[in-house]
């Protein structure tokens, strides 16, 4: 039996819907109910991606002054923190002929500059706001209803869900964000991760950060925070596998210093000039690591062991065990060189290399004047 490739597996993953799409559908059901007096069990909306989608309502409750409708978010096969969350929309008449959009319980408030929503506003992003506004206008026109409405989006479990996200660091307090530019969730989307990197760097810039620490994950970020305790939390950016993208974005947003903090596996790839370090797209090159070991003065027998190693961590252990500390400095210098080239200069670059247990193996700093 032929095994599936990573691309085929990804293609077969089930897509889901964004919180913005769910909020719009719930608001539509509530608004139609408010106008007609007939509770809606579903709502069909037009998504920014260019197709219609129908959402089933979990509830649609009518009171004297408002209607509250809600739908359960289905994120498909994406490991989304908001999967299965109840998204509610309360719709009521507004005194003038305007459409007012706000957030209620479980929807965060923006407290820091640098986000696409002004400070003090509910964390409902521009595209979901546009979707809500256009939907409300269309429904009111269709029912020949010349009145204003107020739409309040809530997520009862939002405050708890937000603890699993970076919202707190971004200055979004009290709940989740209502997001989505296409209306659909593509499982393990690179575009979504890159957008989060851009947003995090924008908040860092707006907070006055000129020195950022970019890490490959949560563990390396902890080591970075310990190494640079003087920096504010906004300065720490998880770049995942997107090293090249993050470096270029740091340059684009005007940072003056970038510090890379990580471990042997992914940084041994950066040292070769590989800027997308996912395991499937860039395997460990043990011949390259053997060359670095040779430059660092390792014995012939040790260099042979590097060539025959199974993991980059094993190579690091071999070098540390035999006291070849120059190996780690050489690797860090190589990371700096390739990072500097990726950004086309203009910044101070440093690389810190750690073990899985958080022990510093090596560090190198490269100034722009060195070129």
TrEMBL record:
It catalyses: Co-precorrin-5B + S-adenosyl-L-methionine = Co-precorrin-6A + S-adenosyl-L-homocysteine. GO terms for biological process: anaerobic cobalamin biosynthetic process; methylation. Coiled coil: none annotated. It comes from Fictibacillus macauensis ZFHKF-1. SUPFAM superfamilies: CbiD-like (SSF111342). It comes from the Bacteria. The keyword S-adenosyl-L-methionine applies. This is Cobalt-precorrin-5B C(1)-methyltransferase. Its EC number is 2.1.1.195. The keyword Heme does not apply. Belongs to the CbiD family. One of its GO terms (molecular function) is cobalt-precorrin-5B C1-methyltransferase activity. Pathway: Cofactor biosynthesis; adenosylcobalamin biosynthesis; cob(II)yrinate a,c-diamide from sirohydrochlorin (anaerobic route): step 6/10. Keywords: Cobalamin biosynthesis, Methyltransferase, S-adenosyl-L-methionine, Transferase. PANTHER family: COBALT-PRECORRIN-5B C(1)-METHYLTRANSFERASE.
């Amino acid at each position: 039996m032929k095994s599936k490739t990573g691309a085929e597996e990804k293609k077969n993953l089930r897509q889901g819907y964004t919180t913005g799409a769910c909020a719009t559908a719930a608001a539509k059901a509530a608004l139609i109910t408010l106008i007609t007096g007939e509770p809606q069990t579903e709502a069909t909306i037009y998504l920014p991606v260019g197709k219609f989608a129908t959402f089933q309502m979990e509830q649609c409750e009518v009171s004297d002054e408002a209607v509250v409708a809600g739908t359960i978010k289905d994120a498909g096969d994406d490991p989304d923190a908001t999967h299965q969350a109840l998204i509610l929309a309360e719709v009521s008449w507004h005194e003038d002929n305007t459409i007012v959009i706000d957030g209620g319980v479980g929807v965060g408030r923006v407290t820091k500059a640098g986000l696409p929503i002004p400070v003090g506003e509910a964390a409902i992003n521009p595209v979901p706001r546009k979707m809500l506004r256009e939907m409300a206008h269309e429904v009111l026109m269709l029912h020949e209803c010349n009145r204003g409405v107020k739409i309040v989006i809530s997520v009862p479990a939002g405050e708890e869900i937000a603890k699993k996200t970076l919202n707190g660091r971004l200055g979004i307090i009290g709940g989740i964000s209502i997001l989505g530019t296409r209306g659909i969730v593509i499982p393990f989307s690179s575009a979504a991760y890159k957008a989060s990197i851009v947003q995090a760097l924008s908040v860092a810039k707006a907070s006055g950060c000129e020195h950022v620490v970019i890490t490959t994950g949560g563990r390396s970020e902890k080591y970075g925070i310990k190494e640079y305790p003087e920096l504010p939390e906004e300065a720490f950016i998880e770049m995942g596998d997107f090293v090249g993208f993050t470096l270029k974005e740091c340059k684009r947003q005007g940072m003056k210093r970038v510090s890379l903090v990580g471990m042997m596996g992914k940084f041994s790839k950066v040292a070769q000039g590989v800027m997308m370090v996912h395991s499937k797209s860039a395997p460990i090159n043990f011949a390259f690591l053997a060359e670095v070991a040779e430059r660092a003065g390792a014995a012939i027998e040790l260099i042979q062991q590097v060539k025959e190693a199974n993991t980059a961590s094993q190579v690091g252990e071999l070098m540390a065990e035999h006291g070849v500390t120059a190996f780690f400095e050489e690797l860090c210098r190589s990371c700096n060189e390739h990072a500097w080239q990726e950004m086309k200069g203009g910044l101070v670059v440093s690389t810190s290399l750690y073990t899985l247990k958080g022990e510093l193996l090596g560090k190198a700093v490269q100034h722009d004047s060195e070129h």
